[in-house]
């Protein structure tokens, strides 16, 4: 469904991505693993059409988005939910208002339908009793679950996670990863999981691409990562967490 073909991306003089090619199939969880600053969030921005590559193409369901105008991108973006690293919740809105916000803003659907969808996400994310709370009163793991619920509310086919476990304690991280795994089973959803934490990959990803110094140095099913010879991959397998 999502395909990057020979994508090169520079910020000014600095080359971040060098001829990166990636395929992300529907109903699969694909991890993109790499150290901080390597260009993982940049890949998500390219997939959403928020930035354009210097060369190469990005295809969503076979459609080239690299030449599209902003207005043409809206229906494409609606196929994908995104969970930002910092969650991007609205601080002054309750959890229910956060969940319903984009439905109310973007779609002309009856209020009862909005409320039904919000309740569905409250239940799925295990947030019963917190409907009227503000984000600041929730733990990091709960805020992440709200962000996931909000990303799911348009029924996307694919969900993009930017470092979903960064900053969470091990128990909360595990809950979030279980939720990501459950999404695929329950809703047949695909996911791109961008992370610098190798345990995330082993817990939920079907396949993994490793990004290092602007290039993909490994791209295969997760279980094969153990057999990779690249020194960088050997080092992350022994150290577990990638250094800055
Ligand atoms: N808008 C921008 N302008 C210039 N440099 C940027 C911009 N966004 C990100 N960068 C730089 O590009 C590199 C890759 O960024 P990013 O994709 O955020 O990395 P990651 O998500 O893997 O940590 C980093 O060195 C970052 O500082
Ligand atoms: Mg990032």
UniProtKB/TrEMBL annotation:
Keywords from the named record: ATP-binding, Nucleotide-binding, Transport
GO MF terms, alphabetically ordered: ATP binding; ATP hydrolysis activity
InterPro entries on file: AAA+_ATPase (IPR003593), ABC_transporter-like_ATP-bd (IPR003439), ABC_transporter-like_CS (IPR017871), P-loop_NTPase (IPR027417)
SUPFAM superfamilies: P-loop containing nucleoside triphosphate hydrolases
Domain of life from the UniProt record: Bacteria
PROSITE patterns, per database record: ABC_TRANSPORTER_1, ABC_TRANSPORTER_2
UniProt name for this protein: ATP-binding cassette domain-containing protein
Residue ranges of every copy of the ABC transporter domain listed in the record: 2-238
One Pfam family matching this protein: ABC_tran
The keyword ATP-binding appears for this protein: yes
